[in-house]
């Protein structure tokens, strides 16, 4: 049986000597529900029961333990999502107008091509590529 998401986050926090509080659990649940990177303001709109300062503090702790990743978009506003370890491998589409970021899962053929590009980077520059990210920039449906 696969470990529960909350069990994994709890273990990640314990490794950094932090507790998995009710507020942190709620943040993880909200990030799962949204399915895309969100801002602090969006978390508050979605019903986060913490103050803005507590959200920043708890997200920083979740980021330090490896459960959350912070992304900065075209509007320089931080957005937060669960790490790929806790979700799935994906890439991002970014709105150049409002800064919204959405997740996109690419077809296997494109993932293979990205793997080939990583191998080419190794051949050309000697980099050992551990992972890859693709960011597509355009205009979202709300702004377009």
Question: TL;DR?
Answer:
With 144 residues, this protein is of the alpha+beta class. It has 2 domains: 87 residues, Winged helix-like DNA-binding domain superfamily/Winged helix DNA-binding domain (Arc Repressor Mutant, subunit A, Orthogonal Bundle), CATH 1.10.10; 56 residues, Ferric-uptake regulator, C-terminal dimerisarion domain (Dna Ligase, domain 1).
Which term fits the overall shape? globular
**Mean of residue pLDDT?**
94
Q: Any idea of the CATH class of the largest domain? A: Mainly Alpha
Q: Quote the distance from N terminus to C terminus.
A: 44 Å
Put simply, the count of helices is 5
Strand line-up in the sheet with most strands:
4-3-5
Low-confidence stretches: none
Written description of the protein model:
The protein has 144 residues and is of the alpha+beta class. The chain has 2 domains: 87 residues, Arc Repressor Mutant, subunit A (Orthogonal Bundle); 56 residues, Dna Ligase, domain 1, CATH 3.30.1490.190. Helices cover 42% and strands 16% of the residues. The chain has a 3-stranded mixed sheet, with no helix packed on it. A two-stranded antiparallel ribbon has the order 1-2. Strand 3 and strand 4 form a beta hairpin. It is globular and about 45 Å long. It starts with a helix and ends in a 6-residue tail after the last strand. The relative contact order is 0.13. The mean pLDDT is 94.
């Amino acid at each position: 049986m696969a470990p529960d998401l909350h069990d994994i986050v709890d273990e990640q926090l314990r490794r950094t000597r932090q507790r998995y509080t009710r507020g942190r659990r709620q943040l993880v649940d909200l990030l799962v529900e949204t399915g895309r990177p969100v801002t602090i303001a969006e978390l508050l709109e979605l019903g986060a029961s913490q103050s803005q300062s507590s959200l920043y503090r708890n997200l920083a702790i979740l980021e330090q333990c490896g459960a959350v990743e912070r992304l900065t978009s075209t509007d320089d506003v931080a957005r937060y999502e669960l790490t790929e370890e806790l979700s799935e491998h994906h890439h991002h589409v970014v709105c150049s107008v409002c800064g919204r970021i959405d997740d996109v899962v690419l077809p296997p053929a494109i993932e293979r091509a990205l793997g080939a590009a990583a191998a080419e980077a190794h051949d050309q520059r000697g980099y050992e590529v551990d992972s890859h990210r693709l960011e597509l920039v355009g205009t979202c449906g709300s702004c377009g």
